[in-house]
Amino acid sequence: QVHLVESGGGLVQAGGSLTLSCAASGSIFRMIAMGWYRQAPGKQRELVADINGGGGRNFADSVKGRFRISSDFAKNTMSLQMGSLESEDTAVYYCKARLYTDFTTWNDYWGQGTQVTVSS
Fold first, then answer.
1. From CA 90, how far away is CA 88, in angstroms rounded?
2. Contacts within 8 Å (CB) and 24+ apart, 48-53
3. What would the pLDDT profile of 33-79 be if each residue is shown by its tens digit?
4. How far apart are CA 30 and CA 54, in angstroms?
5. Which of 16, 8, 15 minimizes the C-alpha distance to 36?
6. Is-contact 40 60, C-beta < 8 A?
7. φ and ψ of 102, to 5 deg
8. For residue 80, what are the contacts with CB-CB under 8 A and spacing of at least 6?
9. C-alpha span between 76 and 95 (Å, rounded)
């Protein structure tokens, strides 16, 4: 079994900063990529940022220049440093890991989500 746990969510003022962390554990053969997604009420879940084993990163246009993603795949962890937060960043943030559980089998796994609320 693979499980992911997010932490670091909370209430923050507009313009402030917050850092989210994700830790994956369980039957992990090899991590492929990890990413952060968010879902606001009435909206579909969207990619915020992700990072792969080669250090390649993708960001949503709305967070470029404000958010930074980092990972330590040896520890199966990932962090999202969020700065200059805006009310539009309010959402439940989910950690996703794409990983091999054996040599040939990979799947996506999701955390339970952590609420980020930005007060304007």
1. 5
2. 48/80, 48/93, 49/80, 50/96, 51/78
3. 999 999 999 999 999 999 999 999 999 999 999 999 999 999 999 99
4. 13
5. 8
6. no
7. -150, -170
8. 19, 20, 21, 36, 48, 49, 67, 68, 69, 93
9. 12
